[in-house]
Amino acid sequence: MLDLPAEALDETSFVTVDVLLHSQTPRARQANVLVFRYQGRVYAYVNHCMHMQRPLNCQEDAVFDAERRWLRCSMHGFIFEPDTGICRSPVCEGQALQAVKVAEEQGLIVFKEKQLQVLAFHPAKVAPGQNHD
Ligand code: FES
Question: How many domains does the chain have?
């Protein structure tokens, strides 16, 4: 269970969560999942840029561009549609981040994947240039 209070994740922050995917199967593998809110809705993707196999926030604590229109990998700046995970940069165009099912229920953000085990939670980050004041 993620059990993150929904109010803790606003449009300016994101969290990352270490999880075990396919936790009940021989295919079990550890992954870091990026969770954020975009235009009011919560999304989650495996935090793994397909360009050079890095987390999107590997170079700085940011996963969006300055206008918060695109998810943006901090390594080389490749951009992704926040609501689909599809890459819009030429080298990886058409490939997509792996989506993880997530929902808001009774004031909590919860993972909806059947075989996912939360290993560690990394608190909300504030996007650069934005703050909660
Ligand atoms: S590793 Fe993500 S853009 Fe290069």
Answer: 1
